[in-house]
Amino acid sequence: MMPRNLPLVLGVAFVALVILLNSVFIVRQDRQAIVLRFGAYTASINEPGSSEPGLYFKIPFFDTVIMYDKRNIGLILEGQSIVPSDQERLIVDAVVRWRITDPRRFYQSALTEDGGEERLKVFTESAMRRVLGAATSDQIISGRRAALMQAIEDDLNRSAATELGVRVVDVRIRQADLPSENTERVYERMRSERQQVAGRIRAEGARDAQIILATARQENERLRGEGEGERARIFAQAYGRDAEFAAFYRSMRAYDTAIDANTPIVVPPDSDFFRYMQRRRGGN
Known about the structure:
By secondary structure, this protein is of the alpha+beta class. The protein folds into four domains: about 15-70, no CATH class; about 75-180, 2-Layer Sandwich (Tetrahydropterin Synthase, Chain A); about 190-240; about 245-284, no CATH class. It contains eight helices and eight strands. It has helices at about 5-20, 105-110, 115-135, 135-145, 145-165, 185-240, 245-260, 275-280; strands at about 25, 30-35, 40-45, 55, 65-70, 75-80, 90-100, 165-175. The strands form three sheets. It has a three-stranded antiparallel beta sheet with strand order 3-2-5, covered by helices on one side. A three-stranded antiparallel beta sheet has the order 6-7-8. It has a two-stranded antiparallel ribbon with strand order 1-4. α6 crosses α7. The longest helix has about 60 residues, at about 185-240.
């Protein structure tokens, strides 16, 4: 027969088990927790900067434990419409990596991770409009993207860190494109601008080339003049040292200049043109 007090024992055991299960909780290494008593904050466990995972006790039915992720959390923003300083609207996709650094402030501001993500999304959209709105579309698409992403991250950490108790660890612009209806018009404007720049560079190159050529010609004439002068000086010294050689050299130069190969020439033998040869033949 079943003892009369068995239902009572089972009831007490069940109540004890429920109380026990509601008296303990486990905080994992990658999680952090806050403890609320009647809705008021009482403690934080395993928050950033500490290592306190493990088994913990609470007052059953009076204490509530809320768990938050201790790791970096990803936030993706797609299709953000941004108007840069040159008024060319862009569609920007971005990724934000963030983590909860102050669980108490995070609970007071956002309650849940989903609520915190929604609030951080608003902060990020505002920061992107402030930073990217001061840049040009060319800078966003290519030129200064790294600097702009760092500026957005800094802006978020000034606003979101104080308001939400989080820290933004990275901001990445995954994609920045023109709306499809504006693409051809903007690309045509960019081509025109690049052609203007190319034309200016070509004109500057042509001007510099003329200057360089003029300078080179001037230097060439100077060096040629110096060479001719040095040549004349050397010949003058040679002529002064050996008059016979000088007469011979001048005659050979005259023959070389006047008589081309296979060219007949009629000159009287006693002409001045062959004076040196006559003198050498005659022994004078």
